[in-house]
Write a structure and sequence with these properties.
By secondary structure, the chain is mainly alpha-helical. Helix content is about 80%, strand content about 0%.
Length: about 400
């Protein structure tokens, strides 16, 4: 379990490196901004293709899938460290997205069986470590800049660390899928279990689509909201770059609070109620940032929005792993594909900023949040009366 809990930390820290090094590798290799943006965008189709490995975790060794994903991730970082062209970096980014999905989903499918009824507790701990990863990635990039070394050094160091994590996963006794007779297979055995039509059954489940759409709409409330908040404070509110950055990143404290004190406080709250409450808070926080010019209020709103986002994500994450027992990997693959199509939302909000200003652009997050809240309320009414044992019976039938 200790090895599994580190997966989000490793993933968040390593995925930041291409984003944090964009200007450095662009200038070094003489790329246009369009090419540099394409390098970053290549992560997303890789993540969609990686859904194949997520689905495979329902039937094959999670240890092989997770460790293979970590080794592939290490390879992608090495490709950045050694890459000398646009094509090499774009290919590295594609491999990064694919490997990240395999590594994270392989371990989390195993976590479902290891954690049992305490799954949300352990997810909160994993997400808390992910917050540490959000700090570690920028720290690696900043350390390289301060030391005056090449932008390639953090990628090389990350490749080594990710390779070591792959070795840890390869040696971890992750549970294998049950065999066809329902008995658990030994970890060294693949333990294939045949579930004909699993993908079709998942695709026909309306709850999967609603959950995927909620996740799609939730994504912009992370880094994109931070970016637009910083721009708003600097351009329209007269804040310095340092002040704007500090206020925006107060949200990191919100994640820490949500995944420790509040996760424990709300441990008995059902997913649907936690989701609705979290979405309401994060939406209200974003709207407050857009309309209230007082910097102290904006800081509190940023903290509240981060808390709401973290709690809502915890509910979505737990629901995605428990919605269809026995088909967890396939469900995550479908959800990941749906969520990946939301790449256009920050682009649309950016277009609003160009045409109508940053205040209205940040206010647009309120519209996104309202749509998410409506879906969360509908989902809660549909599923709150159905026990997990009932879900298992339905899936089994």
């Amino acid at each position: 379990m200790a090895t599994i809990l580190l997966v989000r930390l490793a993933d968040e820290a390593a995925v930041f490196l291409p984003y944090g090094s964009l200007e450095s590798f662009r200038a070094d290799l003489g790329l246009t901004y369009a090419q540099a943006g394409t390098v970053l965008a290549a992560i997303f189709p890789g993540a969609v293709v990686g859904g194949v490995f997520a689905a495979a975790a329902d039937r094959f060794s999670r240890r092989v899938i997770a460790a293979g994903g970590a080794f592939g991730f290490a390879l992608s970082l090495a490709m950045f460290a050694a890459g000398g062209s646009f094509v090499a970096l774009a290919l590295g980014a594609f491999v990064m997205g694919l490997s990240s999905t395999a590594m994270v989903d392989g371990t989390e499918v195993a976590m479902v069986e290891m954690a049992g009824d305490d799954l949300r507790h352990w997810l909160a701990r994993a997400n808390l470590l992910a917050t540490a990863g959000d700090l570690l990635g920028p720290a690696l990039v900043a350390a390289a800049a301060v030391a005056g070394v090449s932008w390639r050094v953090p990628f090389a160091a990350g490749a080594v660390l990710m390779g070591l994590y792959g070795l840890a996963l390869a040696g971890a006794p992750l549970p294998s899928p049950p065999t066809r007779d329902g008995a658990g297979a030994g970890d060294d055995e693949a333990g294939e279990v045949r579930r004909p039509g699993a993908l079709r059954a998942v695709l026909r489940d309306p709850a999967v689509w609603i959950l995927g759409l909620i996740g799609l709409l939730m994504t912009p409330f992370d880094e994109p909201l931070i970016g637009f908040t910083i721009a708003l404070l600097e351009q329209d509110r007269g804040a310095s770059a340092a002040t704007a950055t500090v206020i925006a990143f107060v949200g990191i404290g919100g994640g820490v609070l949500a995944f420790t004190v509040l996760a424990t406080r709300f441990e008995g709250v059902a997913d649907e109620r936690l989701l609705v409450g979290g979405v309401a808070v994060m939406t209200a926080g974003a709207v407050t940032i857009a309309v209230v010019p007082v910097l102290a209020v904006v800081a509190v709103a940023a903290l509240a929005s981060s808390i709401g986002l973290s709690l809502a994500w915890l509910a979505v994450q737990h629901r995605s792993l428990t919605l269809r027992p026995g088909q967890v990997g396939t469900t995550k693959a479908v959800l990941g594909t749906i969520e990946a199509t939301g790449f256009w939302i920050p682009v649309a909000i950016g277009a609003v900023a160009d045409r109508a200003g940053l205040s209205l652009a940040v206010g647009s997050f309120g519209v996104v949040g309202a749509a998410m809240l409506a879906m969360a309320l509908w989902s809660g009414r549909q599923w709150s009366g159905l026990s997990w044992s009932g879900r298992r019976a339905r899936v089994g039938s």
